Amino acid sequence: MTIAKSQTKSITQEKAKWMYQKMNEIRQFEDKVHEIFSKGVLPGFVHLYAGEEAVAVGICAHLSEKDYITSTHRGHGHCIAKECDLNGMMSEIYGKATGLCKGKGGSMHIADVEKGMLGANGIVGGGFPLAVGAGLTAKLKKTGGVAVCFFGDGANNHGTFHEGINLAAIWKLPVIFVAENNGYAEATPFEYASSCQNIADRAAAYNIPGEIVDGKDVVAVYEAAERAIERARNGQGPTLIECKTYRNYGHFEGDAQTYKSSEEKQKHLQELDAIVRFRKHLLANGLVSEQELMHIEQNVAEAIEKAVEFAENSPFPTEEELLRDVYVSY
Amino acid sequence: MTIAKSQTKSITQEKAKWMYQKMNEIRQFEDKVHEIFSKGVLPGFVHLYAGEEAVAVGICAHLSEKDYITSTHRGHGHCIAKECDLNGMMSEIYGKATGLCKGKGGSMHIADVEKGMLGANGIVGGGFPLAVGAGLTAKLKKTGGVAVCFFGDGANNHGTFHEGINLAAIWKLPVIFVAENNGYAEATPFEYASSCQNIADRAAAYNIPGEIVDGKDVVAVYEAAERAIERARNGQGPTLIECKTYRNYGHFEGDAQTYKSSEEKQKHLQELDAIVRFRKHLLANGLVSEQELMHIEQNVAEAIEKAVEFAENSPFPTEEELLRDVYVSY
Amino acid sequence: MTRKISFSEAVNEAMKLAMRKDPNVILLGEDVAGGATVDHLQDDEAWGGVMGVTKGLVQEFGRERVLDTPIAEAGYMGAAVTAAATGMRPIAELMFNDFIGSCLDEVMNQGAKLRYMFGGKAKVPLTVRTMHGAGFRAAAQHSQSLYALFTHIPGLKVVVPSTPSDAKGLLLASIFDDDPVIFFEDKTLYNMKGEVDEEFYTIPLGKADIKRQGSDLTIVAIGKQVHTALKAAELLKERGIETEVVDPRTLSPLDEETILASVEKTGRLIVIDEANPRCSAATDISALVADKGFDYLDAPIKMITAPHCPVPFSPALEDLYLPTPEKVLRAAAEIIGDETIVTV
Amino acid sequence: MTRKISFSEAVNEAMKLAMRKDPNVILLGEDVAGGATVDHLQDDEAWGGVMGVTKGLVQEFGRERVLDTPIAEAGYMGAAVTAAATGMRPIAELMFNDFIGSCLDEVMNQGAKLRYMFGGKAKVPLTVRTMHGAGFRAAAQHSQSLYALFTHIPGLKVVVPSTPSDAKGLLLASIFDDDPVIFFEDKTLYNMKGEVDEEFYTIPLGKADIKRQGSDLTIVAIGKQVHTALKAAELLKERGIETEVVDPRTLSPLDEETILASVEKTGRLIVIDEANPRCSAATDISALVADKGFDYLDAPIKMITAPHCPVPFSPALEDLYLPTPEKVLRAAAEIIGDETIVTV
Ligand SMILES: Cc1ncc(C[n+]2csc(CCOP(=O)(O)OP(=O)(O)O)c2C)c(N)n1
Ligand SMILES: Cc1ncc(C[n+]2csc(CCOP(=O)(O)OP(=O)(O)O)c2C)c(N)n1
Ligand SMILES: [Mg+2]
Ligand SMILES: [Mg+2]
């Protein structure tokens, strides 16, 4: 297995702008949540996706509403890449009635089924079988859709990894399994917890292609996804893509991250930053102008500010919501 | 991966006799249970091991009481190979008070912890984590013991396969995972349910050796086990051995086995029979004489008859047993 | 038109009718057909379920809709949850309810909670069919009755039918219900015969059925234990005691009104539940009446359950494990205050 | 000698003393140390548990006895079961009790049943420590209180402590108990301080504690809800009502005698249990009293529980989800027949 290198110009200008926008939305959304959380305003656990933008965006750039994704506890990036509404997301994180889930789900459960986003998930490994189910529907109903399962390096040792991928493989379902190998599961290194050297090495156990990409190179991710999704849409079954990436923040807000070395942090947060690299790539290839990029960055900043404002000005859910949505009948 | 061929004369005469005896005990025990069950005497579900004798015996030939095994719903063979008492086993299957578990466990839960037999198991895949635990004790207490996990081709798709082997691999535990690939899980072919071609192929996902052996050649199994157990005892961690085998009877007593072809049955029950082959091997290599073999066969037949007699003449457990052994205190 | 068929035939017929009615209804589970990819079984089953309950379905609906699964309960149960959330109406078979240990997360944390966590923006029309019950000499890991665990979990509906006719109507209601339903089938009832309407019909979830009318004593009994209750009622009648037997049929939602109305009439309650006693359906029903029906009660509420131990293998012990009409009579004697009842 | 330490420090101290006393005591779980194989953390932890409860243990006992695990609950829980059965005395941490969905089989079908299935020829001295409880804004999959599921299962013991001092003594008793014990720690209690003896001591499993004496009303409350009960008792005292607060401390085995004796004295019972209401510990205790304590009762048994819904994320809703002293007062008003109590 070799790490796939990104080719040039596979991406249209329009797509490139969308991707740059989404990456910036994720980064700025997360930076903002980080800032607000540190003020003690936000309730609960928050896991930030900053640093891993290239994965969600490189994959979701190929998807439309008929395609589904399953996500993780670190789900904000997947939501944004799958075009969930920023206001509704922020509001959800605040626990407000205008949240995408009326404030009932919170950060770990943001979902928008109509957009094909089947929910962040508080259970590590929870997404594998769920992606299989969405893939099964796509196959049986012949929708042409695919299902993408995002999962972490920690999840790769959970039993559902094995059961989910095996099922998708024997049924040749249109499912793409995307490992976000950020090197750690909470405070536990991937190398300690996993007996494999690469997650993609495990693809062979299911007779499916396994590919490793630089998960901080959005073009590389985009291209790997293209191959996998084509296979899936052609009825050739699942693919496992491992994206080597890094999370810029701690496991959750409040994590002192003593397990990271400062060189490692330095390298990832500076040299290898996915947004900086994509920006350079776009300029170098003349795909998008400096001005347009700045325009995007600014629009995003405004959108994030608005989302916070929207969330802060929204009301909390009222008492009758407590017992609503437990069953269809109430 | 290539199928290991058996070498000659790695087995001492004494060991060879023990192995021949145990294989015959298993076969005759199971044939007898089959016969009694068909008379409607035995309660519950019974899964027979006949046909797979070479696996349990080839492996357990290396084990002593300080070594542990975990077993499956098809556990009689493992019990016998681990030297559980035949009377106590038969009595257990009858649900009698003199059974190894006082009649409380039955066929699917026969156990003898002092012998290192951690129980047949009604839960497919249940044994993986249990073997890891026994291996962990061996490592921490430095007993020099190993733990063997017997499992079926069906179990190989359960999440516990993945979690158990990964754990044993990262902790370098003295555990040997022995796949009994008899081609079917109930009425479902291995090829349908498993995305891998061989179970042993999955060893690579855990960076451990995977070996395929002819599971109806007890010498081949014996030799593969020797290598694996040596690795384990040397602190080199787990091995996955896949034994290609076949069950002579149905999944459980009462199974019409419509999924088996008659050629397949013919081949396995006649040409490839493990006991017949081992018998020939012993004679051809002059390890044991015809007379001695006949003597063993006859002794076994008597022992099985006695076991049935013992079971039939034993009393059922009495009322106070119902609420005993739930907790240590009662 | 009705005719006598067995409990398992009734369950089978419900699935058949549901699959005919709605192409989104699919069935998944281990060996629900059996023999997948076996040459001579392309359009035929090897088993049709471990107890033959799903026989004939693969012939009629094909292997696209009757899916044999690997032994991967978490995998296919989770898949069934989102298949449901994305447009299918799956029936997932968990062969024995004891195997929930392999897929509780998918049922409890995903299936049951999706709708609520998503603020109502999803529905999960999933039916999980599963076998339960002691008396089959199947030992501790294949004989439990675990409906209490599921009843505890909000977002699930829980059905435990006691007759072929109820089984059919309740299963059809479950399949076409838009919430996840756990449907319990007692393996020792499969051969029981009863009159069952040929047509498609549903029995609403949440409606108890009074299986016998009476004015002196109420017995609420679950699943197979309805028959223990009916036998006890016969014996009690010989002593002049009229027993009302209430079959809740669904534990979640529970028909509180019918139970309370019966106790209001009789003043006495026995609950029969063959599951283990602690935090059980028996305690649930008892606690309901101890609160909302307290003023109706003339005597303590008695529960006839399994003891607090695993299901033993030995027939000698398993027979002692289960509720019996005699145990009911002993409880009745106590709360009616007539020791002679025991000796009926 | 006692001194004020927090609930989490008390739990930590119990583990430390147990590990000092017996080399067979080991600890396994996700990030119980954290940072395994990280160069600069060879003999140090990265976290010491997600909430810091296991801090310092790896420094003292090393990584051989404090084992970080992969995210493989079935794997390490099953391993803990047989490690226990083969001579160790493991403490396995299930980070949140909600994750039992990933390893119920290992707990329910293996750990709990081994001894019985083997006819008494094994013991399983395993302690599972796990976090539970709502109020942390942790949403539906990290806030449940699932002790009813475990209490339902024979072969398990279930402990739910409410104070630092109880936590320490009960955890030590659990670790040195020869049966599998599920030990619940309410995450919202971790910072609560209380007097705790420095020494090694155990509190027997199966003994309730009367946290407040009273003669008019019994409140049985579980875990954190003991404090809700104590607050309600204070408010009730202002109305001249003397409340007895019984903390069962262990749900399995349950100290039936103490509960019944209290109700015999007071004639009235309220149960507070923040878990979901159906087939719950609340119904269990209520049903016990509705049978064996029926003759003592002057009024219906009230249960203050969560509603039948998942735990909502929004603080506005989660606050409504939990029991409160006000809800207790409302129930008390009803069974005492004095509406003015509500307005205390
Ligand atoms: C079944 C389960 N076990 C444990 C946890 C606690 N937990 C939450 S996130 C996490 C680490 C996940 O690591 P990884 O999969 O690598 O994702 P990352 O956080 O790195 O994105 C753990 C252990 C959980 N939520 N669910
Ligand atoms: C978790 C679980 N799922 C399903 C079953 C039902 N079951 C019992 S044996 C069996 C087939 C096992 O096949 P395999 O592992 O190949 O073993 P074999 O019977 O061939 O020896 C199944 C599905 C079970 N006992 N446990
Ligand atoms: Mg990670
Ligand atoms: Mg098999």
UniProtKB/TrEMBL annotation, chains A, B:
Its cofactor is thiamine diphosphate. Residues 22-318 form the Dehydrogenase E1 component domain. It comes from the Bacteria. GO terms for molecular function: oxidoreductase activity. SUPFAM superfamilies: Thiamin diphosphate-binding fold (THDP-binding) (SSF52518). Keywords: Oxidoreductase, Thiamine pyrophosphate. InterPro entries: DH_E1, PDH_E1_Alpha_Subunit, THDP-binding. It holds the Pfam family E1_dh. This is Thiamine pyrophosphate-dependent dehydrogenase E1 component subunit alpha.
From TrEMBL, chains C, D:
One of its GO terms (molecular function) is oxidoreductase activity. NCBIfam families: PRK09212.1. Its EC number is 1.2.4.-. It is an enzyme of class 1 (oxidoreductase). PANTHER family: ACETOIN:2,6-DICHLOROPHENOLINDOPHENOL OXIDOREDUCTASE SUBUNIT BETA, PYRUVATE DEHYDROGENASE E1 COMPONENT BETA SUBUNIT. Signal peptide: none annotated. This is Alpha-ketoacid dehydrogenase subunit beta. InterPro entries: THDP-binding (IPR029061), Transketo_C/PFOR_II (IPR009014), Transketolase-like_Pyr-bd (IPR005475), Transketolase_C (IPR033248). Keywords: Oxidoreductase. It comes from Anoxybacteroides rupiense. It comes from the Bacteria. The keyword Oxidoreductase applies. Residues 5-192 form the Transketolase-like pyrimidine-binding domain.
